[in-house]
Automatic annotation (TrEMBL):
Name of the protein in question: MoaF N-terminal domain-containing protein
Domain Molybdenum cofactor biosynthesis protein F N-terminal: 5-116
Residues covered by the MoaF C-terminal domain: 158-267
InterPro entries named among the record's database cross-references: Calycin, MoaF_C, MoaF_N
Species: Parathalassolituus penaei
Pfam families given in the database record: MoaF, MoaF_C
């Protein structure tokens, strides 16, 4: 048997394109405007001009004012709950993913950034010696409310341990199947059962947020091939929606940011205690 090979995210995205289980892109947000009030004091108005173009207009507590124009993609995992994703063109190798819970008027935002070439090539032993995280992918999580300032009684998305102890299979297409084992609040193991990365497995840094009953935001950052994954997992519908971000190739600085969706199957559950 040949040893499995690590592939760039561009090749992974190409493998995931065929007959995939992505949720359909929706146009529900077109023509609508939402003002996001962040816990840190930011206020960012998002104008969704049509099904793919948006303008964001940010005011910070210190008076800083920024405006950006980007292209987005939106999917709806449940009624009134949307996953919105876009590349932030004003910053290097940066994407923003928004989980908008319009039913409860709250949100969580994930800003992810891939490493530059110097950071990307830094060996893991050197990262350890310098006290850095094993992954060079950075993430920032920000929560808040929609169209009204944050108050203490708002049901903001919260860090959760609900997934810990679960082993879940994700079928992204007839050709691409993975399993996740959620180990602890900081780590999970992924394993390719079928597909372009067959036989590959690793344990990487991750984050978990509860959005609603049996609905979660799961984010992971890989270290061998710098990769950011941001997905929503609905354990009632046994379905996911989200994205994977990485570089097109090991030599390229071009981003590859592609949508993913899977049918989920809970294979086992162990006592997290």
């Amino acid at each position: 048997m040949n040893s499995p090979s690590w592939i760039p995210v561009g090749a992974l995205g190409a493998a995931f394109q065929h007959d995939n289980h992505c949720l359909p892109v929706v146009t529900d947000l077109a023509g609508r405007t939402f003002t996001l009030y962040f816990e840190n004091g930011w206020v960012i108005r998002h104008d969704f001009h049509d099904h793919q173009n948006l303008t964001w207009d940010m005011t910070a507590p210190d008076g800083e004012h920024l405006i950006g124009h980007d292209q987005y993609q939106a999917t709806r995992i449940r009624d009134q709950i949307y996953f919105v994703d876009f590349i932030k063109s004003s910053e290097r190798a940066t994407t923003v993913s928004l989980v908008l819970n319009l039913a409860e008027q709250v949100f969580v935002a994930v800003q992810g950034q891939l490493p530059d070439q110097t950071e990307r090539l830094l060996p893991i032993p050197t990262r350890i010696a310098e006290g850095k995280a094993l992954t060079p992918v950075s993430t920032t999580f920000l929560r808040g409310s929609i169209d009204q300032p944050v108050t203490a009684d708002m049901p903001l998305p919260a860090v959760t341990s609900d997934l810990i102890g679960k082993r879940i299979e994700y079928r992204y297409s007839p050709l691409e199947v993975y399993e996740h084992i959620y180990l602890n609040p900081m780590s999970y193991t992924w394993h390719c059962i079928k597909g372009a990365e067959l036989g590959l497995a690793d344990t990487d840094a991750c984050y978990y947020y509860r959005i609603s009953t049996d609905l979660y935001l799961f984010v992971w950052c890989e270290k061998i091939i710098p990769t950011l994954g941001v997905i929503m997992i609905d354990l009632t519908a046994l379905k996911t929606t989200g994205k994977i971000l990485g570089y097109e190739s090991s030599e390229s600085e071009a981003l590859h940011n592609f949508a993913v969706g899977a049918h989920a199957r809970i294979r086992s559950v162990i006592d997290a205690e």
